[in-house]
Amino acid sequence: MNIVRYPADRLTDLLRDQKVATMPQLKNALGTSVTFTVLRKLAPMGYRSSYSHGGTYYTLDSIAQYDELGLWSYRDVHFSRNGTLLNTAAALVTHAPAGYFTHELDAVVRVATKDALRQLVRQDRLERRELADRYWYGAKERQRRQEQWAARQAQQRPDDELQAAIVLFYSLLDEQQRRLYAGLESLGWGHGGDQRMARLLGLDVDAVARGRSELLSGQVLHERVRRVGGGRPRAEKKRPKS
Fold first, then answer.
1. DSSP 192
2. Where are the domains of the chain?
């Protein structure tokens, strides 16, 4: 039985010449009608399918010139180191210093992302909240999301130096310190202070109230100054030999 061989360099030559190609073009170059055969040949080369055009274009990582966000475009075809639009949106939002509004992310990836963002929220991979009558998207991880929210709040109030200073200082604290600081600031606002600080810093109202309660009652966990195991080793008492 004759074994049909499909030289992979035909695909390499096509992609180096055109930069990107569709599956029908790749099949034609390889001389096969089977999609799996093309993908099997592409796999060792490190190929990538586009996140635009329904993933119908292909390229090689060795050809793509990714920017600092891991994105590359050839004409109107867009690729990402993260692969699909869903994974790309999740990565970009998670690593963005101040999260993203939908229109901001659209401008970065140059395609519509509203449906992808909604799906990521449903999959519990991102979080969203309302801000200025729009949805703002941030990281799933709580501490990271709080840092993003604080940075976004500072951007929303560039002329309010006090609030900008508050959110900047807040972003430098650990989880317990953030809760206590929010509780401290809420005391200065009186009635409605918990809600105000929760909106400003991206905390739950209950977390602000808890921080305030801990401060007023003095029930604050003091962390060790020295790590466990730090300092001079304890001297062991020598027992006399029997």
1. T
2. 9-64, 158-217
